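Quick one from the shared queue. A colleague (R.T.) flagged Hexosyltransferase as missing a structural entry in our internal table.

Convert sequence to structure tokens.
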Amino acid sequence: MRNRSTEKISAKWIPVFCIFSFFLGVLITGRTWLPSESNGQLMSLRRREQELQVVTDELTTKTNSAPDNDLMERTHEALQSLDKQISVLNMELSVTRSSREIGISDGSAAISLLSNERKKVFMVIGINTAFSSRKRRDSVRETWMPQGEKLVQLEREKGIVIRFMIGHSATSNSILDRAIDSEDAQHHDFLRLEHVEGYHELSAKTKIFFATAVAKWDANFYVKVDDDVHVNLGMLATTLARHRSKPRVYIGCMKSGPVLSRRDVKYHEPEYWKFGEEGNKYFRHATGQIYAISKDLATYISINQPILHKYANEDVSLGSWFIGLEVEQIDDHSMCCGTPPDCEWKTSAGNVCVASFDWSCSGICKSVEKIKYVHSKCGEGDGAVWSALF
């Protein structure tokens, strides 16, 4: 009778041990994919393997001592925990592989990426800019974007990274590239992308920005904003912090505009036929002046960027990449206030806006001259971001 019982228990637990063997095999295989990992990541992998071994040993002990119901419950909990660790590890490995690919083409970042020294921050703000937008950049620097030591202090103390993001020209080491190099040497506030600049390449630039930012910083949120938009950093940080516990969030002013098939209009969509009958609207997506996505979504873009389709309009492209995913869309109209008097009224009522711009211009009209006025009327105050709790 005892032999028969023992055989029954052993057979019952064979699938469990098979599952653990499979997970351990995945870990071992993962290690062979990354033969040149840094010492820090190898230690992390070994530590995870040791943790999994402890779980396996505990289950083995419980098999011989715990009652069946209690054992099954504990086993289920252990499997859930193990599955979560496997998912996290696979995500980290994917990010590292993606980081290495970026690092190969970006010699200045290669050492940091390959050693897996991503700095933990709260959010990374990429300000989309162009070669011809020097005056816009200066107006942003003179208003809502801290400069010099304050920019470094903001990153160090509040975990807020702000960079102008720009690629390079089609001609290697052109006068345009040298001008950006000179400006960066003066201000130290650029994130250079492996991307050829062009108005019709904004969707590609967006993908590369998120991939580059994820490889360089481990942030809770990644934000894209245009260089003709006024931003209140304290309100932005406070707004995002409310959604910090959510794994996959997409935050902005959501819209669903018409698909424009006519070639003579500004936002013509060459692939209009993909959206059904003429006159149909796009799926819901955030307007492109400013939006934020959580770490998991930015990582998803980084890993899958070669197969993510690019539509003519960058904001439409971003929205399309999240269709089919479990993503929570946050429609926050404080991220699309108008310029004075709109944002001024809201500020005086205690409802400070996250961002302000003119819909008619897809940004602040004549932003170089007007952004200082917007800042004086709708700005939260220079000390707001330092006192904000998030």
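Residues 68-105 form the longest helix (38 residues).
The beta strands are 119-128, 160-168, 190-196, 217-226, 230-231, 249-255, 285-294, 328-331, 355-356.
Added to the table.
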